[in-house]
């Protein structure tokens, strides 16, 4: 592994950081969260036009930039620093790779160019609250989460030449505003039980979308109800959907790990800047040994998480599935950095007006949505056979 970054990768980071610094400051961020979409469409257009962010990892034949997961992860590190609310994760990290992996030639040619330009946003709708399970991050995604042949989840049935869907999905990232839904649904009954992915326009008849109040307001979520909705099967009926979801989950974990590192780095940076200015007993509180030790511990944990996240991004192209482990370490580092930011900012760290609570909520929200940390590690240990023959409490 080459630990250095290319000139192109450094340029992506620099340009994105400059753009977000100008267009996604604290005031712009709060204003975007109060909009119906939960993000600034103008910023999303700028990210698409200037950097090709939605199509960063989409092949050039479909109008994308044709970069690797590493570039995608480095971009996520910068969006994480700013806590930039956007359809980036749902569209470029979850939906686009699944369309590329499973879609027919016609589906890829129709959808990916529009995704690459930012004209079409998309998201993955997993039944219930099973996103982490569907992506095989915290357990085997055997298909029970999609409905398992019983009531609940999302059920699919054939209707002539097409399909009809009925059910509900919670915690759908940007589900209230996405132009396209990739819905995971169960079909086949007991004898031919299987999970398939379907394409559903966000404004299709029978689709009811409700934006949810989430702990982390910068990560918009929605409840999506499907009431006998007409849908198009993604790819072929015999495709390995569960395998594609697991691979997408490993990629998403690596990208999310870098995003968490960016958020932790910014939280630490803000805290260090504050303790250098805040005075107590006639001297900056950052000069006190106890404060130095606490921030040094955060720095060491952050650097370890950064190394793990970069390695996970690199390893996706080398069939090494370490994304969930890197995500666990990065989420832990973010939670520590955010907690110290709240504490060391003193009274203002607890106020609604300060940004410290947004970083803490990002850490807690991601832990609930993609974790928790101990389950990410336990599942990785099970996959590696680390505790084979032993009983481990989770």
What do we call the CATH homologous superfamily of the largest domain? Butyryl-CoA Dehydrogenase, subunit A, domain 3
How many H/I helical runs? 12
**Low-confidence sequence ranges:** none
Give the N-to-C terminal Cα separation.
33 Å
SSE run: HHHHHHEHEEEEEEHEEHHHH
Question: What's the CATH class of the largest domain, please?
Answer: Mainly Alpha
Indicate the proportion of strand residues.
15-25%
Quick check: average pLDDT? 91
Overall, the morphology is globular
How many domain regions?
Answer: 3
Domain Acyl-CoA dehydrogenase/oxidase N-terminal: 6-118
Domain Acyl-CoA dehydrogenase/oxidase C-terminal: 254-377
InterPro entries: Acyl-CoA_Oxase/DH_mid-dom_sf, AcylCo_DH-like_C, AcylCo_DH/oxidase_C, AcylCoA_DH/ox_N, AcylCoA_DH/ox_N_sf, AcylCoA_DH/oxidase_NM_dom_sf
Cofactor: FAD
């Amino acid at each position: 592994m080459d630990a250095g970054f290319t000139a192109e990768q450094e340029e992506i980071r620099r340009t994105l950081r400059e753009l977000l610094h100008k267009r996604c400051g604290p005031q712009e961020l709060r204003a975007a969260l109060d909009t119906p979409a939960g993000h600034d469409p103008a910023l999303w257009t700028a990210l698409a036009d200037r950097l090709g962010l939605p199509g960063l990892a989409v092949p050039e034949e479909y109008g994308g930039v044709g970069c690797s997961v590493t570039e995608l992860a480095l971009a996520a590190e910068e969006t994480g620093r700013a806590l930039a609310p956007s359809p980036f994760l749902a569209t470029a990290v979850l939906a686009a790779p699944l369309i590329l992996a499973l879609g027919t030639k016609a589906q890829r040619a129709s959808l990916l160019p529009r995704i690459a330009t930012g004209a079409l946003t998309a998201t993955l709708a997993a039944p219930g609250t099973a996103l982490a399970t569907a992506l095989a991050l915290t357990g085997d995604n055997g298909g029970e989460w999609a409905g398992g042949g019983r009531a609940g989840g999302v059920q699919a049935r054939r209707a002539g030449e097409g399909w009809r869907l009925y059910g509900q999905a919670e915690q759908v990232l940007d589900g209230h505003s996405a132009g396209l839904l990739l819905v995971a649904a169960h079909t086949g009954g007991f004898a031919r039980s299987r999970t398939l992915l379907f394409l559903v326009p966000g404004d299709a008849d029978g689709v009811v979308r409700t934006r949810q109040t989430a702990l982390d307001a910068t990560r918009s979520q929605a409840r999506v109800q499907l009431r006998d909705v007409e849908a198009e099967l993604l790819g072929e009926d015999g495709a390995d959907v569960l395998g594609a979801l697991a691979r997408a989950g490993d990629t998403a974990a690596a990208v999310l790990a870098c995003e968490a590192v960016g958020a932790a780095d910014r939280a630490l940076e803000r805290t260090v800047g504050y303790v250098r200015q805040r005075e107590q007993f006639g001297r900056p509180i950052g000069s006190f040994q106890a404060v130095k030790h606490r921030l040094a511990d955060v720095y060491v944990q952050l650097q370890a998480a950064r190394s793990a996240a970069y390695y996970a991004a690199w390893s996706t192209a080398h069939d090494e599935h370490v994304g969930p482990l890197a995500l666990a370490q990065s989420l832990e580092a973010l939670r520590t950095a955010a907690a110290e930011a709240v504490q060391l900012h003193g009274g203002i760290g607890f106020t609604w007006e300060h940004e410290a609570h947004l970083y803490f909520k990002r850490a807690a929200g991601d832990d609930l949505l993609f974790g928790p940390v101990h389950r990410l590690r336990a599942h990785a240990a099970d996959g590696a056979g680390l505790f084979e023959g032993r009983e481990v409490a989770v």
